[in-house]
Structures are given as structure tokens and as C-alpha cells.
């Protein structure tokens, strides 16, 4: 399928995608069987089957740019790993050729923070720009289960105070001024307040983060998706970019 798509889209490069497929897809019938079995008992619906791949196209005028999204949980389940999908996903990024060595410092930085985060982060998927690897972004998507306090949002967005560049802090200042509105919160609560979710068992969690890394940059950029329908009766998602 990907080889057919490549002929229809100019300047698409699939070298990294091919490596992700090799490293993140179950590679034998036995691995597929184990992944399916563990998914049914360990993952919540509708994720109780091991997804492997999604794709998207950016349509800009007559230009089409391809993105791919990999789900490392399938390989994680297939190989009997139990920590979380970071084991398979982060190793796949570190081992990319070319430029995996230039991505590794940011992956290591994120990996270390992940263990120190005050709340459990669950890795959902990894997004890749299908362009020249020297210019491609890799986005690591992860969500919080239920917590949504401003203190926690600030902690994750600054990696516990390790990233305090002016642009990041300015974006957080703007977001802070909107935080209660986004959560449909009418009362004045302190920054430690976690608002109860309307659907606390949703597989979406409360907040989704995207940690964006590129070759040669040590600290990931952070984007955030606020699932407004979990806080108020609105059927849409609001995406915010922290800049």
C-alpha cells in the first residue's frame, strides 16, 4: 500500500516508515497471536485489538504531504514487555537510520522525565513526517488518565521546570488564562484542582500531549489536545499549541 502511495505523492520518503514497520509490527504468527490475546485482557475498548498503523495527508493547495502514525503497543504486547509502549517505541526512534543518534538525546530526556512525572503518562502513538529525515518531525503522543490540574499541566509542559524558555512560558501564561474556561469551570479553584470528568473511563483520558522532537534538538516541543467533550457537553475537540 505504501509503495503505491509513494508514486502518487511527490517528495515522500518512506525510509523511516520502513524501519518503524520492521521494528514495531509483530513479525511472526506467534507474535500476532500473543498481541491479540494480551490486548483483549489488558487494553480498554475500543483499543482491545493491537492497532499498528494510521496515515494522514496534509492538503496545501495542490501539494500533498504524508504523515504516518505508528502504534508501538502491538509490538510491546507481542514481545511480552510489561512496562509500557515506551520500551518498543522509544527504542525504535533511537535506532532510526539516518539521524537516530541525533534524536536519541531528546528521547532520553523525555524517557527520564516520564518516570518522574507526578501522574502516569500512557504512550498512544508515534507520528512521523514522511519527508527528508533531516527535516522530519517525530511526535510522541501520550495522555493523562483523569487528572487535569493546572499544576500538572505546567509540570508536564516544562518537564518539571527543566524547560523554561520565554516562548514556552508565554504560551503557558496564555493557556493558564483560559484553563478554567476550557474545563467549563465556573468556580475559582486553585491550580491544584483536578476537575472530575464527565466520562472518567474514556480511553481518551483527560489531556493528550504531543512531544515533538527533531534531529539535533535536546528538549521536545509540547503540544496539547484538550478533550472538551469530557469536561462539558460539546461534541468537538479543541487543540492548543504551546508556542
From TrEMBL:
GO terms assigned for molecular function: transferase activity, transferring alkyl or aryl (other than methyl) groups
Signal sequence region: none
GO biological process: alkaloid metabolic process
Superkingdom of source: Eukaryota
Keywords: Transferase
InterPro entries (UniProt xref): ABBA (IPR033964), ABBA_NscD-like (IPR017795)
UniProt cross-references to Pfam families, sorted A to Z: Trp_DMAT (PF11991)
Alphabetical list of PANTHER family matching this protein: INDOLE PRENYLTRANSFERASE TDIB, INDOLE PRENYLTRANSFERASE TDIB-RELATED
Protein name: Indole prenyltransferase tdiB
Species assigned in the record: Colletotrichum liriopes
